[in-house]
Design brief:
The chain is of the alpha/beta class. The protein has six helices and four strands, in the order βαβααβαβαα. Strand 3, helix 4 and strand 4 form a beta-alpha-beta unit. The longest helix has 21 residues.
Length: 154
């Protein structure tokens, strides 16, 4: 089983969007038995909060259930339990490295590094543009699936 943890600052916008979009992608391909997929935050600011209404609006439009999701903070134990820890932006990666104490097993990745246009997934908390974030998340998730195929993991 491939264990994937998507991570952003608060775990209410980008990382839950990635979590549920990726779950939907693997289910649509009949690969759900190969994955355990979750999301978390680097901060404590939103712990226990539901998915942001902007992300919820997109997931609702796609008929993707996220109703049980509540924000949680990433832990050191997550590094041991997950195969891939995928951050949404470079600040998330810095915080992940700080929280974990490095990345000796090369598990930490930037979401858009799996695409032809590496960079940060813009935080819609600040931009207000959840559609741009959604396009980046879809590109990153598709790129990640291709990466796993190329490496013979699926």
């Amino acid at each position: 089983m491939i264990k994937v943890l998507f991570i952003c600052h608060g775990n209410i916008c980008r990382s839950p969007m990635a979590e549920f979009v990726f779950k939907n992608m693997v289910e649509n391909r009949g690969l759900e038995d190969l994955f355990h997929i979750a999301s978390a935050a680097t901060s404590t600011e939103e712990i226990g909060s539901p998915v942001h209404y902007g992300t919820a609006r997109i997931l609702d439009r796609l008929h993707i259930d996220y109703s049980d999701k509540r924000a949680r903070q990433m832990t050191k134990r997550d590094y041991e339990e997950y195969d891939y820890l995928i951050g949404m932006d470079s600040r998330n990666l810095r915080n992940m490295h700080r929280m974990i104490g490095g990345d000796p097993d090369d598990k930490i990745h930037l979401m858009l590094d799996f695409t032809d246009e590496p960079g940060d997934v813009a935080d819609p908390w600040y931009t207000g543009n959840f559609e741009v974030t959604y396009r980046d998340v879809v590109a990153g998730c598709e790129g990640f699936l291709e990466y796993l195929k190329r490496n013979g993991e699926i």
